[in-house]
Amino acid sequence: MTVSTGSESYIAAVNDLFVRLKNSTGLDLELHPAWPPVILDQRSLNLGFKVHRRQDEGGRVVSLVIHPLKFDCLSDGTKRVKPTAEHEIGEAFGRFWSDEDGRIHTLVEILP
Q: What is the pTM for the complete model shown?
């Protein structure tokens, strides 16, 4: 599957988010290798990502859906997840990967 240049900027923004979350929470996250990097829905503008922990042997996955308005476009043309969205995502991921949550999948939607 070929990823368009526009999608690549969103992928880079999400990967940068994972680095910041690892530094703040210790969660070692990555886009799930078995899924396309960006999952597009023909019925919306939303961008979908399948996320897992690198060392998670339980197969737990988050379906992360982010609306394009939840990204900032920086002066150099790169994108970054907005701080409010980053906070929401961090809290949702922390809850999902806590010891109390036994689910193997959850949906996290960051919409306007």
A: 0.90
